[in-house]
């Protein structure tokens, strides 16, 4: 690696397939955290996106500001270039669970390679949030830890307030980037711990650590190693840790190892005919959190007496019931994410899989053409890419008189006013796209909670009036 790129996003909502990025902020540093450059990109709200009221009152970007900024196509290409600069390690706070996924879908619908920033040209990714969990557990003296309702909060805004990491409003992208960079500097001061955790984001090193976990026992499935899975997946109520038993690799997704939680009360009620009902498996991708620590006493004992007892009893029970263990392993190893019938093209990144070589060439050619060339090229692109390309042009006010672009825009706008019982575009999880009626309902729910300050009240009022005016409601 030659540089870190700390970044953060503000978005119109939580759905990477149907929402959009509104603000991108980044600071590039050398590997000693010395700032080299910074970037802030504000993106114009697309005509086919409705902002979620909850997002609006969180980042507090006024509607008139949302109407300004760069076109999405131009902005996303710039962001793609930043993350794909040779030797870039891109990272932020909880980016692997949110921001990185958002960018992946943004790259995809703008006909850009969605994964190259993970591996190409010496680039890779990391996340400061899971590192912070480890420091909270094993080096708590490095930070002041905020508490809410008697429990430590690892939200960035609370860590910032407690430790004075950066000044400015929470949920402003640049403020969050500055806070994350300051946090990383503090964590990296514990050099040995930092280097150990950073190595976990390397697929080979992470894989080697998993291979070195001790064997619990063997079954018809093979060797079962065990350890203490540590990360956000077990949840704060469980102290971010869970005892786990290895079940091997997923068959359809070879980059996923499977880890059966041993701290669940219902595991011994498992029916071999219905193993998914009472077996809780965490899927771990190579070089990504959560990380599995060896069951050394300093890690295992942190689980507490009750979890220790439950884990040992469950492990002994599984060993005595090879038929149940085989059923659990077979189900989870063979499990495939369900294909969503009628999935929207914007959401089909995972279901479609990697683009063919021919499609990659078509995307690359599309970006080099002027508008006339792009419009002439539309009928020649594969059907899946044609829809994405036509939508891209519509969203950015390009070639709107072309019949394919015009039809794409008409369909996109019509779905925003779909009523109850009407079919909505589906994302990869089967969820529907936000409509204007969803926006009105969410505004009512937020108001009913009665926790708004004056600025938030005005923002929601402006949004409500804008929706009525835009859609003649």
Automatic annotation (TrEMBL):
Domain ExoI SH3-like: 191-336
InterPro entries: EXOI_SH3, Exonuc_1_C, Ribonucl_H, RNaseH-like_sf, RNaseH_sf
Gene Ontology CC terms: cytosol
GO MF assignments: 3'-5' exonuclease activity; nucleic acid binding
Highest rank taxon of the organism: Bacteria
Stretches assigned to the ExoI C-terminal domain: 341-471
Pfam families to which the protein is assigned, alphabetical: RNase_T
CDD domains registered for this protein in UniProt: ExoI_N (cd06138)
Any single biological process term in GO: DNA replication proofreading
The protein's name in its UniProt record: Exodeoxyribonuclease I subunit C
Organism for this UniProt entry: Desulfobotulus alkaliphilus
């Amino acid at each position: 690696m030659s540089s870190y790129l700390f970044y953060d996003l503000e978005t119109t909502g939580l759905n990477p397939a149907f929402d959009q990025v509104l603000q991108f902020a980044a600071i590039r540093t050398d590997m000693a955290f010395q700032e080299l450059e910074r970037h802030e990109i504000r993106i114009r709200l697309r005509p086919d996106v409705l902002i979620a009221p909850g997002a609006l009152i969180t980042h507090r970007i006024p509607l008139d500001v949302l109407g300004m900024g760069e076109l999405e196509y131009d902005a996303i290409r710039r962001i793609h270039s930043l993350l794909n600069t040779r030797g870039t390690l891109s990272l932020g706070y909880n980016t692997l669970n949110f921001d990185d996924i958002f960018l992946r879908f943004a790259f995809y619908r703008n006909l850009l390679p969605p994964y190259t920033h993970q591996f190409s040209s010496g680039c890779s990714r990391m996340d400061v949030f899971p590192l912070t969990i480890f420091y909270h557990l094993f080096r708590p003296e490095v930070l002041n830890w905020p508490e809410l309702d008697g429990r430590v909060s690892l939200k960035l805004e609370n860590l910032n307030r407690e430790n004075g990491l950066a000044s400015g409003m929470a949920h402003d992208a640049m403020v969050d980037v500055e806070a994350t960079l300051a946090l990383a500097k503090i964590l990296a001061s514990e050099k040995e711990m930092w280097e150990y955790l950073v190595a976990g984001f390397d697929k080979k090193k992470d894989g080697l650590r998993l291979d070195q976990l001790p064997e619990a026992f063997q079954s018809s499935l093979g060797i079962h190693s065990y350890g203490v899975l540590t990360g956000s997946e077990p949840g704060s109520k469980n102290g971010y840790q869970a005892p786990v038993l290895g079940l091997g690799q997923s068959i359809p997704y070879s980059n996923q190892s499977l880890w059966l939680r041993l701290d669940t009360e219902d595991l011994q009620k498992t029916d071999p005919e219905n193993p998914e009902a009472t077996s809780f498996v965490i899927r771990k991708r190579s070089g990504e959190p959560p990380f599995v620590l060896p069951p050394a006493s300093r890690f295992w004992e942190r689980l507490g007496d009750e979890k220790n007892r439950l884990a040992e009893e469950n492990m002994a029970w599984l060993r005595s019931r090879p038929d149940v263990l085989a059923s659990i392993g077979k189900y989870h190893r063979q499990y495939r994410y369900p294909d969503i019938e009628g999935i929207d093209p914007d959401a089909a990144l995972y279901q479609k899989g990697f683009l063919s070589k021919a499609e990659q060439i078509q995307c690359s050619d599309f970006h080099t053409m002027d508008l006339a060339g792009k419009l002439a090229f539309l009928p020649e692109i594969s059907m899946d890419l044609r829809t994405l390309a036509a939508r891209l042009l519509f969203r950015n006010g390009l070639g709107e008189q072309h019949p394919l672009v015009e039809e794409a825009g008409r369909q996109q706008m019509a779905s925003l006013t779909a009523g109850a019982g009407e079919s909505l575009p589906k994302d990869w999880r089967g969820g529907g796209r936000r409509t204007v009626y969803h926006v009105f309902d969410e505004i009512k729910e937020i108001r009913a909670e009665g926790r708004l300050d004056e600025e938030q009240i005005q923002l929601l009022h402006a949004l409500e009036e804008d929706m009525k005016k835009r859609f003649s409601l």
